[in-house]
Design brief:
With 327 residues, this protein is of the alpha/beta class. It is 45% helix and 15% strand.
Length: 327
């Protein structure tokens, strides 16, 4: 797949997720085989107000796209220029976020209700940057205002290099089932690459989405939490309903250590210890006695004690698996 000047070796893309897709996580999924990563959604206004630290990009993350939200075209232009100057490989304009503070500010999915306003922003940003420009949208505002196809044609006419569609409405939020058929409608309506997003939690579902809709790529969000292997076919099968074997338990432990190492390199040990906590929930979710394990971590604040507990837990799982295999 080609997005602007970017040549992508596969169609698996990491979605922007607030609180998760920081630099260390982006680098981790790139190591796993993800072809393109997105930053957490960044306020264009906040960025312009001298918050350049929001744009920290590691050389090992590339290619990386900076996702921006905003409603003022001049601010969006300035923020996009900052992203390009910082070394981003692309800018994504968010027209899909349903969060009330974002919508109230006239940004995110609210832009789908005002096509001319959206067009003004996109055209001006396109004229400003030379790197790839993409747009992320939803189905529309509600079930009576499904305008994803019309918006897709509009943004293609503005010079956008690719479109990502999450086929839920604003009023749905993240509830209910995403309507993959709409991804197919968008794909048939435009000639630029279309990236599908929504309810993909395994490699087989990613493949299914591409087959059913004809989309060029699949953006994976919550399905990658605690599961960066979703981008690596070598390790994907144990995550699709089969209990993990010893080799996969060891791989999971290795990746936890690697993730912490990346966090520490980026933000220091104290910050890394705070950040790894939320990831440990996802890395151990669904494993035997995981709730008890997480409860045992509650009073641990030192690195040594924390990782001794992690090692002990995975050693227990390995012994358990070895005993079951010998029966």
């Amino acid at each position: 797949m080609r997005i602007g000047k970017l040549e992508l070796h596969n169609g698996l893309i990491m979605a922007p997720m607030a609180g998760f897709t920081d630099g260390p996580f982006r680098q981790l999924v790139r190591e796993m085989g993800c072809c393109l990563v997105f930053t957490e959604m960044i306020s264009a206004e906040g960025l312009v107000r001298k918050k350049e630290h929001l744009l920290r990009i590691n050389k090992n993350e590339h290619p990386v796209v900076v996702q921006l939200f905003g409603s003022d075209h001049e601010t969006m232009v300035q923020a996009a220029g900052m992203a390009e100057a910082t070394g981003a490989d692309g800018v994504d304009i968010n027209m899909g976020c349903p969060a009330q503070p974002v919508v109230k500010a006239g940004a995110g999915v609210d832009l789908m209700r005002f096509p001319e306003k959206a067009k003004s922003i996109i055209v001006k940003v396109r004229k400003t940057i030379k790197i790839a420009l993409t747009v992320k949208i939803r189905s529309g505002w509600d079930s009576k205002q499904i305008n994803a196809v019309e918006i897709s044609r509009l943004v293609e006419g503005c010079g956008v290099d690719a479109i990502t569609i999450h086929p839920r409405t604003k009023t749905q939020g993240f509830r209910g089932q995403s309507d993959w058929s709409l991804i197919g409608e968008v794909k048939r309506a435009v000639s630029i690459p279309v990236i599908g997003n929504g309810d993909v939690t395994t490699p087989s579902l990613a493949k299914k989405m591409m087959i059913e809709t004809g989309c060029d790529g699949v953006m994976i969000g919550r399905g990658a939490l605690g599961n960066p292997w979703i981008f690596n076919p070598q390790w994907s099968d144990p995550l699709e309903g089969t209990p993990p074997d010893i080799s996969f338990l060891r791989e999971r432990k290795r990746v936890i250590d690697r993730h912490f190492s990346l966090l520490q390199e980026s933000d220091g040990e104290e910050r890394a210890l705070k950040e790894i906590w939320k990831h440990l929930f996802w890395y151990t979710k669904g494993l035997p006695r995981s709730a008890s394990f997480r409860s045992a971590l509650a009073g641990l604040r030192e690195r040594g004690a924390l990782f001794d507990a992690v090692a002990s837990y995975f050693d227990h799982l390995e012994r358990r698996e070895a005993c079951q295999a010998s029966e």
